[in-house]
Amino acid sequence: ADRKELEDEKNRIAKAEADKKAKELAEALAIEKAETERRNAEKAELEAKAKAEREEALKPEKEKAIDFLNCLVFKNELPQITDAELLNHVESFVNEIQKQRNDLIEFITNL
Questions:
Q1: Fewer CB under 10 Å: which end of the chain, C or N?
Q2: 10 Å Cβ neighbour count for 81?
Q3: How far is it, in rounded angstroms, from Cα 67 to Cα 35?
Q4: Residue 1 to residue 19: CA distance in whole angstroms
């Protein structure tokens, strides 16, 4: 009986030590996780602040670029060209330039 009690006590102490180590490990992991989350939040905040500052600094430059691009417009009417093939090439060119200008304005606006 003494041997059984001694064995039980030994097992109880081993379990208590294992539980204590598991609790300490869980607490350390929780602290590490919280610290990682804090660092990630801090990093995201700094990145957002830097992006906002860049956007604010770019605002006048973007406005100048867009104003310039908006000045690049063709007359509403194409010239009177009787050759259909030549007229088609001119019209395609004008349409492509206008599309590229609009795409660039959209790109600049979204910077």
A1: N
A2: 13
A3: 47
A4: 27
